UniProtKB/TrEMBL annotation:
Every O-methyltransferase C-terminal domain range: 147-343
Entry protein name: acetylserotonin O-methyltransferase
Subunit and interaction comment: Homodimer.
GO cellular component, one term: cytoplasm
One Pfam family linked to the record: Methyltransf_2
Catalytic activity of the protein: N-acetylserotonin + S-adenosyl-L-methionine = melatonin + S-adenosyl-L-homocysteine + H(+)
Ranges where the O-methyltransferase dimerisation domain occurs: 22-108
EC number(s) from the headed UniProt entry: 2.1.1.4
Family from the record: Belongs to the class I-like SAM-binding methyltransferase superfamily. Cation-independent O-methyltransferase family.
Enzyme class per UniProt: transferase
InterPro entries documented for this protein: COMT-like (IPR016461), COMT_C (IPR001077), COMT_dimerisation (IPR012967), SAM-dependent_MTases_sf (IPR029063), WH-like_DNA-bd_sf (IPR036388), WH_DNA-bd_sf (IPR036390)
Length: 361
């Protein structure tokens, strides 16, 4: 033992070991959530009248007869995480019910208002998780300096894999549609003023058009365009009220009063964000004609003060390393806006973890 090293008390040593192992095993909660999503346990509970015993679940999910006790162990972690609730009858039998979290995991076709099960698969995804194993190499190896974490792990960018692997791309794009539908529902309930008085809007990197669809449903007079990569636009569901344009956001953004970018700039480093924002500035109307850029992004440190959202912003930031992206603090956003030639901005913390940022020319 080094001379200066202090001997830990027995209690400290014990607690330190417990805390360390607890951190090491945190990923099990994510994996259990993914398993419950793939097994469609929320649907099983819902279809069983909103409450289900272990045998009910086993019947619904097609469990192998030897695996009943294994399902019980999985459910124990999932109730600990607040994904399900459990009550034990007099005979000790467990009955599981949905929580507000697992209600978001009901499938399409099962009575529900919102679904986020594909988003679980976007986050808890073998290629996303595998990327995180390369952080050490990405941070230290010379050849990795100009690459994203994803490229170090997989030899291609996130966008290239989405383009070339239709299953992976399908899950990603479906997940973004789900996220956008939930986010837009909240934004339109809490802050629909952001869209008032606009004649035309381009959603840049708008994927399959879920944000634009929500905007035109609420404001049918707004002429909405979605710009995304050509292979994404080619597979977008048709919508007579939205014009889809295939292209590269670094090259050209169609003209409109307002440009909206949801979850785009957090995928890119500072200099690329300045380039994108300059393109946006060329595309929008003058400020006195209602011109602005609407960003839907995390502003680290702004939003709900509760532990879960605050922690989520920081976890999200490290997650975004995989595309060489970043979740920014206000001063980092401001630097981008000023360098791109914008004069002013307003942050509206509307989504707990994420904000609307209006940026004015
Ligand atoms: C994180 S997703 C966000 C999608 C959508 N805005 C949302 O929040 O649901 C990023 C989007 O940017 C698109 N994208 C990436 N590079 C692009 C480029 N160079 N030009 C246009 N779109 C691009 C992707 O295809 C993808 O749809």
């Amino acid at each position: 033992m080094a001379q200066n090293e202090q001997v830990m008390s027995t209690e400290d040593l014990l607690q330190a070991q417990i805390e360390l192992y607890h951190h090491c095993l945190a990923f099990i909660k994510s994996m259990a959530l993914r398993a419950a999503t793939d097994l469609r346990i929320p649907d099983a509970i819902h279809c069983n009248g909103g409450a289900a015993t272990l045998s009910d679940l086993a019947a619904h999910v097609g469990l192998h007869p030897t695996k009943l006790s294994h399902l019980r162990r999985l459910m124990r972690v999932l109730t600990l995480s607040g994904i399900f609730t459990v009550v034990h009858g007099r005979d000790g039998e467990a009955t599981y019910t949905l929580t507000r979290v697992s209600r978001l995991l009901l499938s399409d076709g099962v009575e529900r208002t919102h679904g986020l099960s594909q988003m679980v698969r976007v986050f808890v995804n073998p290629v996303a998780v595998a990327s995180q194993f390369s952080i050490h190499e990405w941070l230290t190896v010379e050849q990795a300096a100009a690459m994203s974490l994803f490229e170090v792990a997989h030899g291609c960018t996130r966008w290239e894999m989405i383009a070339n692997d239709s299953k992976d791309g399908g899950v990603f794009n479906a997940g973004m549609v789900e996220d956008s539908s939930v986010a837009m529902d909240i934004i339109l309930r809490k802050s629909s003023n952001v869209f008032r008085g606009i004649n035309s809007l381009v959603d840049v990197g708008g994927g399959y058009g879920a944000v634009a669809a929500a905007v035109v449903r609420a404001f049918p007079d707004i002429k909405c365009t979605v710009l995304d990569l050509p292979h994404i636009v080619a597979n977008a569901p048709s919508n007579n009220n939205i014009q889809f344009v295939g292209g590269d956001l670094f090259e050209f953004i169609p003209a409109a009063d307002v440009v909206l970018l949801k979850f785009i700039l957090h995928c890119w480093q500072h200099d690329d964000c300045v380039k994108i924002m300059r393109r946006c500035k060329e595309a929008i109307s003058a400020r006195d004609a209602g011109g602005k850029v609407i960003l839907i992004e995390v502003v680290v440190g702004i939003g709900s003060n509760e532990t879960v959202p605050k922690e989520m912003q920081l976890l999200f930031d490290v997650f975004m390393m995989y595309t060489d992206g970043i979740e920014r603090e206000e001063h980092e956003w401001k630097k981008i806006f000023l360098e791109a030639g914008f004069s002013d901005y307003k942050i509206i913390p509307v989504l707990g973890v994420r904000s609307i940022i209006e940026v004015y020319p």
